[in-house]
Amino acid sequence: MSETFPPNSPIPQPSGYDALLAQLKKSPQGPESWKWLLQDAEASGDTLRVRQLYEVLLEQYPNNPSTVARYMTHVTNTASPTEVETFFIKYVHPSPSVAIWKSYIDYLKHKPSTGYDNLCKTYDFVLKQVGQDRDSGSLWADYIRLLKPMEADNAWEAQEKIDALRRVFRCALQIPLNNIKQLWSDFEAFEIGLNKIAAKKSIPDLYPAYIQAQIVLPQLSTYLSGLGLTPTSDTIKLALPAFPTFTPQDRAFVGRWKAYLMWEEGNPLEIDAKDFGTLIIRVQMAYRKAILRMRYYPEIWFMAYYWNASVGRHDEALNILKDGLEANPDSFALTYAYAEVLEKAELKKDQRDFSEVHSLYERFFGVLRANLVRLSAAAAAGKPTKKPTTDANGTDVPAPTPGPPTINLNQEELDEHKKQFTNAYINYMRFARRAEGHQAYRKAFSKGLRDEFIGWEAFEAAALTEYRCNTENAGRALAGSIFEAGMKKYKHNVDYVLNAHALFESIIGTFTPQQAGPIWECWSRSQYQYDLDAALKLEQRMARVYPNDPPIKRLAQRYKYHSIDAIAGRDLGLGVAKIWAGGTPAIPPLTETLPDAAGPDNCNPNASRNGNDNNNENINGKGITVTVPAIANRNKRTLTPADRKGEDASKRRRPDV
């Protein structure tokens, strides 16, 4: 199915097909260009060309539901049965899309070789994959219709069919499905038709779980309505994930996803501990959808990683980090998180080899340098940067005010990215010191001195480390030498001169730590600087005291240096939001509260943390505050007397399946 474009939209010429494809392979940031390529390939009638394009597209957007759905239509209409089976194994099995799995079942139904038993097994398998999805109600209903004929050769076979049908009903009626009321009516008719006396026990036994699912359904629908998910009936329309713009509208969109994911984690169905696996499946399904729709938002990937790790799914968590970095190679949050995983794994070994962590950082620096080279060229040329005009849904949004519609932001962006690069290098030096010792730290710093993009903060960090960690006079003298070297290079930088001069004078004085006492009073800063294990233990205590703090906030604090918070600036988009708002951070309508912890530049012992339940987040003190629905109060619902029909709510339990 081809798509049309608005009459005024620029469309590449067919002669540029190959060039455009090559460009998109390197940088896939062009949903409209992908759509044009697909339209052109399909119009050509060249089956091989269409298939190759879909393969390339799914390399860039793995498991994208709309792409898989369109490709499936093409394959089932043009390919051999063997090729179709290969397609299903490669692209359908990993998909979280109900529509795609439904198409798979429809295909099998029309295959003469698919018998009754195989079809039943297929339904069982498919419902284990996507049966917790609200839109899977039609699959449950189809399966029930398949099982309903009660004809049997003997009593044992008849009872087996009854048990199978009852099991499917009991599974379906504990899920907030879009057709749950109809399924309940069918279940009542089924039980009463078998035995009215037995139905008086079986129906009330399932009723509380059914009512809870019915209560949760409108809440779930409210959350899902704002997530930009492709409707089940409209997967044939190509929908590709957009890149972040970090406008207020974009941040609001991210906030809605975060609120939904936190709601699912909160167990709104009140699933018992004995059915913990069901909760895992539900939350896992939510995160699978989230990282497909929000592919270029590291914050969502980090949430998925953190949740999987928190429930003991460490292999899945590690794979999420790897996939997230493949999609977002310039993500500070995902790089730091992955580096920590690798570092902790090596620390458990007798023979430690941190080469993989070094390689990870080197790849990361390569990505950042390439971006800095591009920004340097743009800044030198004085090219203007336009403000973003599309949100996460790919729709037009008005340009923020105040400010002209087009401004030159390249130099400001370049300066900010240099600071973030320096932040990454400082954290690399920290890793080298805590993992391999002080000599490794010095080696990393010496190597960084040759990098044109390293800022003054790296000199300060190196000098402070020498002063703190090497109590010998030689170490203190080396700290002074580093400050002196930095002074020669950054003598016109006011920030460096102020920071260096104040500390340098105290070091030159008597070399006694007491004279610099106020600088070292911040315990958490020391923990973040030198000992990952101690820092993580400290944060576990902080998490118990401040449960409303999102984990990514603590990760950001751990890798922050002075006012350089690369995670907030790049992965959460707060720096971009500040620029678009003309220097004042924009205030989007949705997110959580991120109160600023005592960090390298915030050691006020009287500073308070927000431990209340107002559900607002201030990310690193930058004023980006977003409100989300209250999670704790939203997770549990008390049944009304009409709903309970005399049942004691405290005795409700999910029936065994």
Model description:
This protein is an all-alpha fold. The protein has a domain at 61-197: Serine Threonine Protein Phosphatase 5, Tetratricopeptide repeat, CATH 1.25.40.10. It has helices at 17-26, 31-44, 47-60, 65-78, 81-92, 98-109, 116-130, 137-147, 155-172, 180-194, 196-225, 248-265, 276-293, 298-310, 314-327, 332-347, 355-381, 410-436, 438-449, 456-469, 473-489, 494-510, 523-530, 532-545, 551-558, 566-571, 574-580, 632-635, 641-644, and strands spanning 385-386, 406-407, 616-618, 625-627. The strands form 2 sheets. Strands 1-2 form a two-stranded antiparallel sheet. A two-stranded antiparallel sheet has the order 3-4. Strand 3 (616-618) and strand 4 (625-627) form a beta hairpin. Helix 16 (332-347) packs antiparallel against helix 17. The longest helix is centred in the N-terminal third of the chain and has 30 residues, at 196-225. It starts with 16 loop residues before the first helix and ends in a 13-residue tail after the last helix. 36% of the residues are buried. Mean pLDDT is 78; it is low at 1-9, 386-390, 394-407, 504-524 and 583-652.
Summarize the structure.
The protein is mostly helical and 657 residues long. It is 62% helix and 2% strand.
Outline the secondary-structure elements:
Elements: H1 17-26, H2 31-44, H3 47-60, H4 65-78, H5 81-92, H6 98-109, H7 116-130, H8 137-147, H9 155-172, H10 180-194, H11 196-225, H12 248-265, H13 276-293, H14 298-310, H15 314-327, H16 332-347, H17 355-381, E1 385-386, E2 406-407, H18 410-436, H19 438-449, H20 456-469, H21 473-489, H22 494-510, H23 523-530, H24 532-545, H25 551-558, H26 566-571, H27 574-580, E3 616-618, E4 625-627, H28 632-635, H29 641-644
Antiparallel strand pairs: 1-2, 3-4
